[in-house]
Amino acid sequence: MNFNARYQNLKKLFKSNYDPNTHWEKWGNKTKAVHVYANPHKLEMKMKRVNALLNHLDSIPFESVLDFGCGWGFVSKFVLEKFPINDYVVFDASSERISEAKIHLKDFNVEFHASLIEDFEINKKFDLVLGTGILHHVRPEKIKSILKHLLQFTKHDFIHDDPPPGFRTNAKIEKTTFNFYHDYKQIWKDLGYDVNVISIPGHKTRTIYHVKVN
Ligand SMILES: C[S@@+](CC[C@H](N)C(=O)[O-])C[C@H]1O[C@@H](n2cnc3c(N)ncnc32)[C@H](O)[C@@H]1O
C-alpha cells in the first residue's frame, strides 16, 4: 500500500477511534524505560539526540522549564543533571508515564502533571518550553492550535526535537498508527515565527527546532 493510501486509512481510523488520552494510556507502554535500555541501538540514537540538545542548551540562558510530553522523564533527567533548574514542570498524557517520571526524577525539584497538551493549564510562563519526540503524535489538523496553546506558556525559547524538514514529504503518517510528520518550517512561518533548525550529528531522522519567542 502506498503512503497516501496508508495515510487515508489511518486518518479514518484516527477520526473514528483516536482519543489521545485513551490512546496513550493504552499504547504509551512502548515508551517505557525498559524498551530504550534494552535496545543498544535505540539507546545510542536517543543519546545522540540528548547530547545535541544539551549542547544546544548551552547557547541559551534559562531558569525555568516546561517539558511537554515528558514520558518517564528520560530527557528531563539529563537536562536537570546538567543545569541546576529549580523551577521545572513536566507533564504527559499518560498517568502511568507520570508515575514513572516521579520515580525517575525523584532527586530533583520537579512538578508533575498528567494532562494532554490541549488541556494543560498553568498560571505562569517558562523561560524554556521543551518537547522531545512528542509533536509527531499530534494530528495534522491540531498541530497549529497545539503549538499556539504551548506558546502561551513560553517566555523566551521553544525547542522541540522532531523529524527534519523534507522528511517523508510524500507521507504525513507512517510506521505506526500514531506518527505524523509535520512541515514545521511552514507551520512556524504561518504562526509568525522564525525557526532555527539545528541538525543532530549522526542522526538523520531527528533535528532540533528552536524558536525565539522574545
Ligand atoms: C515518544 S514519547 C517521548 C517522551 C519524552 N519526551 C522523551 O523524549 O523521552 C511521547 C510521549 O508523548 C505523550 N503524548 C502523546 N500525545 C500527547 C498529548 N496529546 N498530550 C500530552 N502528551 C502526549 C505520550 O504519553 C508519550 O509519553
Question: What's the SSE blueprint?
Answer:
Layout: H1 3-17, H2 20-27, H3 33-38, H4 40-57, E1 64-68, H5 74-82, E2 87-92, H6 95-104, E3 110-114, E4 126-132, H7 143-151, E5 154-162, H8 184-190, E6 195-200, E7 203-212
Parallel strand pairs: 1-2, 1-4, 2-3, 4-5
Antiparallel strand pairs: 5-7, 6-7
The structure holds S-adenosylmethionine.
The CATH class name reads Alpha Beta
CATH superfamily: Vaccinia Virus protein VP39
- Termini separation comes to 45 Å
Q: H/E element string?
A: HHHHEHEHEEHEHEE
Total DSSP E strands: 7
What number of structural domains do the residues give?
A: 1
Please tally the helical runs, counting DSSP H or I stretches of 4 or more residues.
8
Which labels suit this protein?
single chain; 38% helix; globular; 7-stranded mixed beta sheet; Rossmann fold; binds S-adenosylmethionine; 214 residues; alpha/beta
Report on the architecture of this protein.
Strand 1, helix 5 and strand 2 form a beta-alpha-beta unit. The protein has a single domain, classed as Rossmann fold, CATH 3.40.50. By secondary structure, the protein is α/β, with parallel strands linked by helices. The protein has eight helices and seven strands; from the N terminus they run H-H-H-H-E-H-E-H-E-E-H-E-H-E-E. Strands 3-2-1-4-5-7-6 form a seven-stranded mixed beta sheet.
